[in-house]
Amino acid sequence: MTSSAPLPSPAAASDRRRWFALAIVMTAAFMDLVDVTIVNIAIPSIERDTGASFSSIQWIVAGYALAFAAGLITGGRLGDIYGRKRLFLVGIGGFTLASALCGFAANPEMLVASRFLQGATAALMVPQVLSIVHATFPAHERGKVFGLFGAIVGLGAVSGPLLGALLTEWNIAGLEWRPIFLINLPVGILGLVLGSKFITESKSPRALRLDLVGVVLVTLGMLMLIYPLTRGRELGWPLWGYLSMAGSVLVFLVLVLFERAKAGRDGSPLIELSLFRVRSFAAGIAVQLTFGIGLGIFFLVWTLYMQMGLGWSALRAGTTGIPFSVSVSVAAGLSVQKLVPRFGRKVLQTGALLMAAGLLLYIWESHHYGMGITSWQMALPLVVMGVGMGLIVAPLADAVLSEVPKEHAGSASGLFNSVQQMGNALGLGLVSVVFYGAIGDRLTPEQVGPAFADAFEQSLWWVAGVLLLIFVVMFALPARPKQHVEGAADDEPAAPEPAQEPVLTH
């Protein structure tokens, strides 16, 4: 009697499948992060090729951000209701189609409309990334996973401008700027095919219904806040912009009151206000908002300083950020896997202080070397800042979502991403005050460089102040995430898993 070779156990097959699923959703997250910034570098090429007006260029950049921010919370909740895998596949499919429409746009109007579609489909795709991670991996493994997520965030932060510069400069097949969108096609198609095979479906175990009034209120509030911030400077900060931003506060207040009443009425609100009773979630959301403001200011003024102040090419500006990107990625992996389990909240606070120290070093170097500063001289402050950011981004996602009930993972993930976008938008709005406010009007060509350098230094003082505020707010975070407390069990019992995570269907 011959013995046959043992078959792989179902557990081993499931383990392999979820790591494949992780790679797929992380790739989608990277696509989104790159797409947010890749367009900025290609703007001169788009302007030359399409004859786009300044207003059209503004909408090409802002359209994506507006549609993305307005739809994130709704996208997350749709995943809870109809299935995170299903919404992820719809999102990545739509994102790929929208990227094709952007790449083949015949005129500026078509490009603007395609960018809106791209942002709206990204809002369906992105919230599912953290939701799928939260629903697929047990608590004791999420630290490792969020470490990978932080590394992806670090790479995406700087890869967009660098990739945009390379693709535009290479002018592949004479297409000029178009490959910055077309590069998403093979990645998106591959993600769609592999995602349908390897991602396990998950949704809320309770029968939820879409809160249409909540969708209208949250979308209206986000647009009333973000639209004036995005267009305010170009339009000269009109009175209606300030009234709109003030009115958004009232809309959000009405939203909170309505969601509280709806939760009591049928248990299907768009935003689970009960999440804010989870201390780690509430404190983490506050940190995320403040952190987004700081990053929104820094990344824009940094790009303006290098390209318009120092007169560097897009490619040189993009490659200058490589030390920052590498540092974020390395530190993000180490922070969650090695440091947070041992030191807890202190890791994030150390990251805030390191970022502030890197900014102060950058201010000193910019002032000391003036217009003669080189990319190599910028490397040290960028590495210090990158390590600091890496110590924050991955553990923060872990801290915010670690104690969230699994059935509300989509809602929590949508809120987490939306708050970051709100913070970035507020930061971009503040650039008009802290950066452009320091630059005088009617500058001669000789005055432009020094004026931009001076405004850059002043802006970094603001960002350093924001980071010190973040350091203080972080005291409200739990001293140590729940799954890192020695001997703690996973936050979800093992028994209900099959009911909440249906077996993958092919």
TrEMBL record:
<feature type="transmembrane region" description="Helical">
    <location>
        <begin position="239"/>
        <end position="258"/>
    </location>
</feature>
<keyword id="KW-0812">Transmembrane</keyword>
<keyword id="KW-0813">Transport</keyword>
<feature type="transmembrane region" description="Helical">
    <location>
        <begin position="459"/>
        <end position="477"/>
    </location>
</feature>
<keyword id="KW-1133">Transmembrane helix</keyword>
<feature type="transmembrane region" description="Helical">
    <location>
        <begin position="87"/>
        <end position="106"/>
    </location>
</feature>
<keyword id="KW-0472">Membrane</keyword>
<feature type="compositionally biased region" description="Low complexity">
    <location>
        <begin position="497"/>
        <end position="506"/>
    </location>
</feature>
<feature type="transmembrane region" description="Helical">
    <location>
        <begin position="422"/>
        <end position="439"/>
    </location>
</feature>
<feature type="transmembrane region" description="Helical">
    <location>
        <begin position="20"/>
        <end position="43"/>
    </location>
</feature>
<feature type="transmembrane region" description="Helical">
    <location>
        <begin position="179"/>
        <end position="196"/>
    </location>
</feature>
<dbReference type="InterPro" id="IPR011701">
    <property type="entry name" value="MFS"/>
</dbReference>
<feature type="transmembrane region" description="Helical">
    <location>
        <begin position="145"/>
        <end position="167"/>
    </location>
</feature>
<dbReference type="InterPro" id="IPR036259">
    <property type="entry name" value="MFS_trans_sf"/>
</dbReference>
<feature type="region of interest" description="Disordered">
    <location>
        <begin position="486"/>
        <end position="506"/>
    </location>
</feature>
<feature type="transmembrane region" description="Helical">
    <location>
        <begin position="208"/>
        <end position="227"/>
    </location>
</feature>
<protein>
    <submittedName>
        <fullName>MFS transporter</fullName>
    </submittedName>
</protein>
<feature type="transmembrane region" description="Helical">
    <location>
        <begin position="55"/>
        <end position="75"/>
    </location>
</feature>
<dbReference type="Pfam" id="PF07690">
    <property type="entry name" value="MFS_1"/>
</dbReference>
<keyword id="KW-0046">Antibiotic resistance</keyword>
<feature type="transmembrane region" description="Helical">
    <location>
        <begin position="376"/>
        <end position="401"/>
    </location>
</feature>
<dbReference type="InterPro" id="IPR020846">
    <property type="entry name" value="MFS_dom"/>
</dbReference>
<feature type="domain" description="Major facilitator superfamily (MFS) profile">
    <location>
        <begin position="21"/>
        <end position="482"/>
    </location>
</feature>
<feature type="transmembrane region" description="Helical">
    <location>
        <begin position="112"/>
        <end position="133"/>
    </location>
</feature>
<keyword id="KW-1003">Cell membrane</keyword>
<feature type="transmembrane region" description="Helical">
    <location>
        <begin position="314"/>
        <end position="335"/>
    </location>
</feature>
<dbReference type="InterPro" id="IPR004638">
    <property type="entry name" value="EmrB-like"/>
</dbReference>
<feature type="transmembrane region" description="Helical">
    <location>
        <begin position="347"/>
        <end position="364"/>
    </location>
</feature>
<feature type="transmembrane region" description="Helical">
    <location>
        <begin position="278"/>
        <end position="302"/>
    </location>
</feature>
